[in-house]
Design a protein that fits this description.
Length: about 110
């Protein structure tokens, strides 16, 4: 339940109280849907999720699973933060040393 109140002159003023809608608030119930990042393709809200990052080189394909990202609730487009991108670049450089045609890795295991 969200409660908005004020304190003053020895009183506690109740301004409003309500049960927040899951469609209008993030999972932490501290950030409203209006404050969420919007998808640059369709304008819908982005939510925290996981994606597969695929790098298709000339002779090698690298798949990194469970990469943390913001994912559009409507169209599925994704956005990575700078820290994740830096870690992915290092992971790909390391995985390119493997001569296998297809390499599959898990982000959380390699980022640890």
């Amino acid at each position: 339940m969200h409660v908005v109140c004020a304190v003053g002159e020895g009183w506690l003023w109740l301004i409003t109280a309500y049960y927040p809608s899951e469609d209008e608030w993030c999972d932490d119930f501290r950030t409203s849907d209006k404050e969420r990042m919007k998808c640059s393709l369709c304008g819908a809200s982005m939510i925290e999720g996981k994606i597969k990052h695929i790098v298709d080189m000339e002779k090698q394909t690298i798949i990194i699973k469970d990469v943390p990202a913001l994912v559009c609730k409507q169209c599925g487009a994704s956005c990575l933060d700078d820290e994740v991108v830096e870690k992915l670049e290092k992971m790909v450089d390391e995985l390119l040393k493997n001569r296998a045609e297809i390499v599959i890795a898990n982000y959380s295991e390699m980022a640890a």
